[in-house]
Amino acid sequence: MAKGLGHPEFQAFRPYDFKAANEDYMENVFSKPNMIVGAKSRVGIITCCDARCSPDQFFRLGENEAFVIRNGGGRTATMDVLRTIASIEILSDIKELKVIHHTDCGALSCSDDFIRSMITNNDPLMKDGPFLQGSKQWAEALTYYAFSWKKGESEREVLERSVVEDVQFLRSHPLIKPSIPITGWIFNQDNGAVEEVDCGLEDGRDPRQIELLKEQLSKTLNGEMKSIIGDIGKTAH
Fold first, then answer.
1. pTM of this prediction?
2. What does the domain layout of the chain look like in residue ranges?
3. CA 80, CA 177: separation in Å to the nearest integer?
4. Which residues are annotated as a binding site for Zn(2+)?
5. How many CA atoms lie within 13 Å of 20's alpha carbon, on the beta-carbon side?
6. What single DSSP character describes residue 152?
7. Alpha-carbon distance 153 to 103, whole Å?
């Protein structure tokens, strides 16, 4: 796979009748009782938007089975991933987060500089036409989180390193509760296997964070107890 030059192969275009598919779903599949808020497994999956990398398929997920967050590369260090996870933590609850990258990912074949240059050059002959005026400023401001290659690394080594980086980013972020296990995985598109990556955590948690949380809770509870005792004393007088 060429590094930094874009993916060499693309699926042939084939129209799909989304309206007919939805009508069939409404008539033959949809069941209102299954549409209760909160995924049944309480598992959140962060993975790539690549159509070939589908947790519904490789995990055989049923309806309302898991929360799935998708973006280019399945990268976690984005505001939208953090916003989404934090919202789920408040509106429902999470028993585990799975970070899943995959082989032959488009983000392996390009770089931030490549994507940025393609937008700023804005070739009027590119497929689907050129970008609007003003795209250059956006291109320069955005981070695309393409995978970085180190000299001599194999694709597997790049993916394992990126999974560890993304898991550890979430694990160390204050918006992600220390009690939630976070695990890392690679979906192998050659054989369909989802293989776990050792991210250096104990059951997906960081024991140091758990201790910090206990210490924080202890201080908070002690402070609240002192406040309550003080209020009782004022009332008694």
1. 0.82
2. 18-110+146-205, 206-236
3. 17
4. 48, 50, 102, 105
5. 3
6. T
7. 14
CATH class of the structural domain 18-110+146-205: alpha beta
Residue ranges for the known binding site are 48, 50, 102, 105
175-209 CB burial, b ≥16 within 10 A, e <16: ebebebbbbbbbbbeeeeeeeebebebeebebeeb
Residue 105 in contact with residue 149, Cβ under 8 Å? no
Q: Kindly report, residue by residue over 153-195, the tens digit of the pLDDT.
A: 999 999 999 999 999 999 999 999 999 999 999 999 999 999 9
99-155, pLDDT tens digit by residue? 999 999 988 988 888 888 888 888 777 777 888 888 888 888 888 888 889 999 999
Q: Which helix (H) or strand (E) holds 184?
A: strand 182-187
Looking at residue 93, what is its pLDDT? 85
Closest CA to 8 of 106, 131, 143, 150: 106
Return d(Cα 2, Cα 18) in angstroms, integer: 34
